[in-house]
Amino acid sequence: MSRLTSQLALMASGGVGVLAGSRRSGRPKAAEAEALRRIRDGVFVEPNRLTVGVYLTEMWLPSMASQVRATTLGGYRHNVRAYIVPRLGDIPLQRLTTARVGAFYGELVASGGQKGRPLSPKTVRYVHTTLRRALRDAVADGLVVRNVAAQARPPRARRVETHT
User: Fold this and answer.
1) Which structural domain, as residue segments, surrounds residue 31?
2) Is there a domain that residue 162 lies in?
3) Contact in structure between 131 and 101 (CB atoms under 8 Å)
4) What is the pLDDT along the chain (164 residues), one digit of tens a residue?
5) What is the value of pTM for the model shown?
C-alpha cells in the first residue's frame, strides 16, 4: 500500500492523518485532490488488483449459494463460466468499463455461442442480468465505485409475431 493510500484509508476510516502535498507548491496533487473528494463524498474504494474472474468465481458465486434458489445459482454459474469469465475474466474489476461491457454483449450476439455461433439477444440479456447483479454486490462490498453493467445496454430481445 502506498503512503498516500495509507493516509487516505486512515482518513476514510475516521482516523487522523495528514495529506502530503507536492514538494514544489505544498498543495495536493490532482490525483490526491480527487482521492480527497472521493473520501468526502463517501465513494473512496481501496485500489486492488482483483480480476473479474476471481471475484465472480471465488467470491461472488460462493456467496450466492445461501441467497438464491439452486436453479438460479445454476444459471449464474453457467453464465459466469461459459460467457463472462472467458471474455472478461482477466480484466481487473476496477478497470471494467461500460464501453467494454457493451462490446462484450456485441461479441456474444455475434459469436458467443457454441462453435462461434451467435447467441440470441434473450440469452445475452440473461448474461447481463448475472453481471449486473454481481457488480451491484461488488459496489455494496466496496470493491468498485459504480456498477458499469447497470449503464450498459444489452440487445433487445426480438419479438415474435403471431398471426391469428
Assistant:
1) 3-41
2) no
3) yes
4) 455 544 444 444 443 334 444 455 556 678 777 766 666 665 667 778 999 999 999 999 999 999 999 999 999 999 999 999 999 999 999 999 999 999 999 999 999 998 999 999 999 999 999 999 999 999 999 999 999 999 999 988 776 677 77
5) 0.73
